[in-house]
Automatic annotation (TrEMBL):
One of its GO terms (molecular function) is protein phosphatase activator activity. It comes from Podarcis lilfordi. Residues 683-820 are annotated as: Disordered. Residues 744-763 have a biased composition (Polar residues). It comes from the Eukaryota. Belongs to the SMEK family. Residues 5-101 form the PP4R3 EVH1-like domain. This is Serine/threonine-protein phosphatase 4 regulatory subunit 3B isoform X2.
Length: 820
């Protein structure tokens, strides 16, 4: 079966008149008893199954095309084709078919394809085995010629024969002379016939005829004929456009006359295809395939000729980067490059590789860096298009350039930072350019297309570079729009808190949504780098400020960012979220959304449902202990009840585990039994908490994973009670309507005994115990100044209160320590 001569692909024609590939196999011709005749069989090369079983019918018209294709119709609407790997195999099977039908194998069609109506119409015409005899090229014969040309289009054989006749007799040039005569005589009827004739000749789809029609001496007359469409009241003025309106701009004079001629010809043929000829119907769509190929190969030739002329390209680059070049000239140079890169897409992969390497060698990237930073919007837009071709072709080439550049330049002028700044400063209200640039950045930072070689890994090098030099530029608008007047590092207990800024401007909101989309991509793909960045910048807290935005799409982007983080099920992230009490803004958004059943509602509930289904213990405990009172009224989904159940089951499990451990081990930190080292670490964390817990992380905000329960439960409860006397917490304040409300604020305000809550807080009557207002946990999380220490405590696990009634009174999350 490994005989490549007989290797074929089987195709069938679908309803859209497109060929569907039915599989690859090996063809044979054998007598099939069931079909009572010689048949073509194709067995799949993968598993030997039968792909095709077709009886060679004596009356079926089989066609051989391009030496390796055999095409035929089995039924009225069922066309089949065999595409052979080798010509020899095609010839062999063709002989078998001709043998069955009693035909000479030298023919290309075994039966005449003309249908009955055509036969009637052409009964006076000569035998179809000879070339078609063309009427003499005279004015009074134009109608006859037009009828002949349009009538052969439905028959592939007759089209071939007409094309040969036109070619042999130099007929096209004679027709174009008649066109000039008709135009001079203003013979409208003749001009309408010539339109039909020239259009019909184009549809013959013959490259040899195109060569004649699109030559310098003929092309304008061909365009002229196509102006006189009988369907139009007035002829179109295509020639006027091509000669007067369309200007050929030479950014640098092109000395090669052949190259100039090719460029002119390609433009005009493209114009004929795109503007003059009507969009082909479903039956005509293959009529112009050769025209498409003609344009394609012209473009390949133009790119190759320009590429070989290094002097020309060097001159273009020199002018592009020269400060003395005026703006108009520079715009033309950039547009030339854009078109040049667009043409290059027609090249084969190997040639395209050479093309972009030539551009890189000549310095396309430093040149782009200059033009992308210019004020001219058109120039920037064209430069972005060129940059997108380069990134699409080789992200590694661009990455390598920016890393080398970083060693010599400031961060401000790095190419990637120029790109980010263009994205941030896009003036388009719809941010079209920013969306395109964001896509390019995403490609550049995607580890999937980074190479790992023996001596270096591009991934680690580039990501280190990106997070050190570029990430701060990307997140700047996000941090600026979620910032407060003071810096986090200078939080002093009792300082006045300013209201959080929230971007209500639609364009800003769109930009922040784009940045969040990119950061969400980073969370999924850059585990280590982005984790450090989020922790160091307290980024999630800043992002969740956007849950207050009046633009729901932005609030959803912020939620999606958090959802991706939780989706990683990483305990580092979980501790960060619980210690920072970062579920609060999400729950506030859910409560503020009320009973509205919308995307925000569904997205928030899906987040909690994920935590329940995946049984993320630390988050479950944190949510139930801190927020269950506010959420228990939500009964249209079972999510929150389910979380409570999971929490209680886990609590029971832990109690049983504690009861089963001998008391001597429970109080002995230095035991060495079968339990894991993690428990020792847990004890160490617990003791640390007693010493340093005053600093940043309030002891009630802790995580509850299975391993995070303390060994000494009794000892922990004593510690807990001691802390309660020091710290009091306002749990969700009960509103006048009897519901609950959390306040999500960022810094303490103890000077006047009240704090300004964020825009989502509602006025609520509070009990005397909470009349001081709720204060921020941000001071606790990031850099609170306390009486004992100012140092930061690492993000570690803290044990939690198991008793819900105590939890209602005591959680210092909302009140800064006032020990000082």
């Amino acid at each position: 079966m490994s005989d490549t001569r007989r290797r074929v692909k089987v195709y069938t024609l679908n309803e859209e008149r497109q060929w569907d590939d039915r599989g690859t196999g090996h063809v044979s011709s054998t007598y099939v008893e069931r079909l009572k005749g010689m048949s073509l069989l194709v067995r799949a090369e993968s598993d030997g199954s039968l792909l095709l079983e077709s009886k060679i019918n004596p009356n079926t018209a089989y066609q051989k095309q391009q030496d390796t294709l055999i095409v035929w119709s089995e039924a009225e609407n069922y066309d089949l084709a065999l595409s052979f790997q080798e010509k020899a195999g095609c010839d062999e099977i063709w002989e078998k078919i001709c043998q069955v039908q009693g035909k000479d194998p030298s023919v290309e069609v075994t039966q005449d394809l003309i249908d009955e109506s055509e036969e009637e119409r052409f009964e006076e015409m000569p035998e179809t085995t000879h070339l078609i005899d063309l009427p003499t090229c005279e004015l009074n014969k134009l109608e006859e010629i037009a009828d002949l040309v349009t009538s052969v289009l439905s028959s592939p054989i007759r089209r071939e024969k007409l094309a040969l006749a036109l070619e042999n007799e130099g007929y096209i040039k004679k027709l174009l002379q008649l066109f000039q005569l008709c135009e001079n005589l203003e013979n409208t009827e003749g001009l309408h016939h010539l339109y039909e004739i020239i259009r019909g000749i184009l549809f013959l789809n013959k490259a040899t005829l195109f060569e004649v029609m699109f030559s310098d001496e003929c092309i304008m007359d061909v365009v002229g004929c196509l102006e006189y469409d009988p369907a139009l009241a007035q002829p179109k003025r295509h020639r006027e456009f091509l000669t007067k309106t369309a200007k050929f701009k030479e950014v640098i004079p092109i000395t090669d006359s052949e190259l100039r001629q090719k460029i002119h010809q390609t433009y005009r043929v493209q114009y004929i295809q795109d503007i003059i000829l009507p969009t082909p119907s479903v039956f005509e769509e293959n009529f112009l395939s050769t025209l498409t190929s003609f344009i394609f190969f012209n473009k390949v030739e133009i790119v190759s000729m320009l590429q070989e002329d290094e002097k020309f390209l060097s001159e273009v680059f020199a002018q592009l980067t020269d400060e003395a070049t005026d703006d108009d000239k520079r715009r033309e140079l950039v547009n030339f490059f854009k078109e040049f890169c667009a043409f290059s897409q027609t090249l084969q992969p190997q040639n395209r590789d050479t093309f972009f390497k030539t551009l890189a060698k000549l310095g396309i990237l430093p040149a782009l860096e200059i033009v992308m930073g210019m004020d001219d919007l058109q120039v920037r837009s064209a430069a972005t298009d060129i940059f997108s071709y380069l990134v699409e072709f080789s992200p590694s080439m661009v990455r390598e350039f920016v890393m080398q550049e970083a060693q010599q330049s400031d961060d401000d002028i790095l190419l990637i930072n120029v790109v980010i700044e263009q994205m941030i400063c896009d003036t388009d209200p719809e941010l079209g350019g920013a969306v395109q640039l964001m896509g390019l950045l995403r490609t550049l930072i995607d580890p999937e297309n980074m190479l790992a070689t023996a001596n270096k890994t591009e991934k680690s090098e580039f990501l280190n570079f990106f997070y050190n030099h570029c990430m701060h530029v990307l997140t700047a608008p996000l941090l600026a729009n979620t910032s407060e007047d003071k810096s986090d590092k200078d939080v002093v207990v009792g300082s006045n808190k300013s209201n959080t800024i929230c971007p209500d401007n639609y364009q800003t909101a769109q930009l922040l949504a784009l940045i969040l989309e990119l950061l969400t991509f980073c969370v999924e793909h850059h585990t280590y780098h982005i984790k450090n960045y989020i922790m160091n910048k307290d980024l999630l807290r800043r992002v969740l400020v956007l849950m207050n935005s009046k633009h729901t799409f932005l609030a959803l982007c912020a939620l999606r960012f958090m959802r991706r983080i939780i989706g990683l099920k990483d305990e580092f992230y979980n501790r960060y979220i619980t210690k920072g009490n970062l579920f609060e803004p999400v729950i506030n958004a859910l409560l503020d959304n009320g009973t509205r059943y919308n995307l925000l509602n569904s997205a928030v509930i899906e987040l909690f449902e994920f935590i329940r289904v995946e049984d993320i213990k630390s988050l479950t405990a944190h949510i139930v202990e801190n927020f269950y009172k506010a959420l228990e009224s939500i009964e249209y989904v079972q999510t929150f009840k389910g979380l409570k159940t999971k929490y209680e089951q886990e609590k029971d499990r832990q109690s049983q585990k504690l009861n089963s451990v001998p008391s001597i081990l429970r109080s002995n930190r230095f035991r060495r039994d079968a339990r894991t080292l993690e428990d020792d670490e847990e004890m160490w964390f617990n003791e640390d908490e007693e010493e340093e817990g005053e600093a940043v992380v309030p002891p009630v905000e802790k995580s509850k994973s299975e391993d995070d329960f303390p060994d000494s439960y009794e000892k922990f409860m004593e510690t807990k009670k001691a802390k309660e006397s020091e710290d009091k917490e306002n749990l969700p304040k009960r509103t006048s309507a009897g519901g609950f409300k959390f306040t999500f604020s960022h810094s303490a305000s103890a000077t006047n005994g009240a704090n300004s809550t964020n825009s989502k807080s509602v006025a609520a009557q509070t009990s005397p115990a909470s009349s001081n207002g709720s204060s921020s946990k941000n001071a606790n999380l990031t850099a609170a100044v306390t009486a004992t220490k100012g140092s930061l405590v690492g993000l570690v696990d803290y044990p939690d209160d198991e008793e819900e009634d105590e939890e209602e009174e005591t959680s210092p999350r909302k009140r800064p320590r006032l020990g000082s």
